[in-house]
Amino acid sequence: MKRHRGLRRYYKNLAIQNDFDKMTWLDFEKTDTWFDNWHVHFDRHGYGNNSFKKRKPHLDKLFRHFEILVDKTKGLKTNFQLYTILLDFDSYSDALFLHTPNPNNSQFPFRIEELKHESTLKNKQLKDYIENLIGFEKLYGQADEAFCLLYKKGTGIDLK
Q1: Backbone phi, psi, residue 8, to 5°
Q2: Average pLDDT per consecutive 10 residues, the chain (160 residues; last block may be shorter)
């Protein structure tokens, strides 16, 4: 197995870096700004796929960035949806989404049918992590694997 160098620094940076500072094109003040289910992944290497200890710092960063976007979206001049989707065991696919009406004519508001309030997750550690999140609406579903969709009421248009 290939050994990854610099992981201590990598995990330290997860806790302090703001990825949105590097995205100079991410401008919420322009009146013509739109997002077509734009999303960002925080575990691009899949380190958390086999270890919740390695997944948790990525989740912490995801939810820290969620709060940053809550503040930034206050400047949007259009309706929007801000949400995250966490997969049961696929840390690589955990993502934070921002969606607005857009010229691509993709569905807005975005809806996923048949979501439930009771958990479908089999990953106990992820389930516990999600249950400890405060202020989030939690909806669960099943696709290729179980997932949880989270959003905050009053931040943009609700997903349910």
Answers
A1: -60, -45
A2: 72 86 78 88 90 95 95 87 95 94 87 90 96 95 93 87
pTM: 0.90
Least Cα distance to 83 among 73, 91, 92, 75 occurs for 73
Q: Fill in the DSSP letter of residue 29.
A: S
Distance of CA 51 to the CA centre of its chain: 19
CA-wise closest residue to 31 among 96, 81, 100: 100
How far is residue 60's CA from residue 46's CA, in Å, rounded to a whole number?
Answer: 15
Rounded to 10 degrees, what is the CA torsion of 133, 136, 140, 145? -60
Q: How many CB atoms sit inside 10 A of residue 140's CB?
A: 19
Taken in order 118, 96, 66, 72, the sign of the CA dihedral is: negative
Cis, peptide link before residue 101, omega less than 30° from 0:
no
Q: How many Cβ atoms sit within 10 Å of the Cβ of residue 114?
A: 7
Residue 117 carries which side chain, given as an amino acid letter? H
- Contact, 141 vs 111, CB < 8 A? no
User: In a 3-state reduction of DSSP, which class is residue 99?
Assistant: strand
